Amino acid sequence: MPFAGHPTVGTAWVLAVHGLAPRGAARFVLEEKIGPVPVDIEGDPSRPDFIWMTHGSATFDPALENRGAVARALGLSEADLWPGAPVQPGSTGNKFLFVPLRDRAAVDRAALDVRALLEAMGERLHLGVFIFAPDLDPAAGRVYSRMFAPHTSGVPEDPATGSASGPLGAYLVLNGLVRKSADVRIVSEQGTKMGRQSFVHIRLGMQGETIAEIRVGGSVVPVLEGELRI
Fold first, then answer.
1. How many domains does the chain have?
2. Is the pTM of this model over 0.70?
């Protein structure tokens, strides 16, 4: 994988806990296919409480004009889309199609028809589909999300998508769906519908109207340990 959230945060935690990262360092860098990915550790460097990964700058392709076709590919109608916000591919390393929906109920009703989606996308690159409903209050800094990628990575639905959460944060800021400040903080609730609830934390550092930094993070819970003999 060129870039992903779980492997980045999890690897940083393992390196820190097992003394394989620079001793006592609160920041180090992982080299991934998209390039260097800085990670920041909060708490005891030997047993981190929380880990942030820094994303690159967010980029967005032109919005899709056939909004109704995209909505129908999700088993929804165009009326279920958030009015005035674009259906748009975006990336900070891995590209996703971002589809803003009117409310949590619409997010939960969505069911992806892959063939209909590919027809709606036309000649565009096949992308995972990230659907979300922002909180009605832009000051809340919350969004309710799901991500489908059976046609790109064989994942019917992902309970938490770190690589999509960076561009999600940028999308929300650029489209006025969260309140701007010098330090924008957003929580994306994902995986609830599939019974694997997660909370992905997003922070954006702003310099005026410009997004200067994007970070995505969470805590780590070890669930399995093993030893490989070669």
1. 2
2. yes
Is residue 125 within 8 Å of 162, Cβ to Cβ? no
Q: Does residue 230 lie within any of the structural domains?
A: no
For residue 5, pLDDT beyond 90: no
Beta pairing partners, 203 = 185, 215
Question: Cα 56 from chain centroid?
Answer: 13
Domain span at residue 187? Answer: 59-216
The CB density around residue 129, as the number of other CB atoms within 10 Å, is 25
Q: How many other CB atoms sit within 10 Å of the CB of residue 89?
A: 21
Q: How far apart are CA 40 and CA 42, in angstroms?
A: 7
Helix, strand, coil fractions of the chain, as percent rounded to 5:
25, 35, 40
* pLDDT mean over 81-90: 97
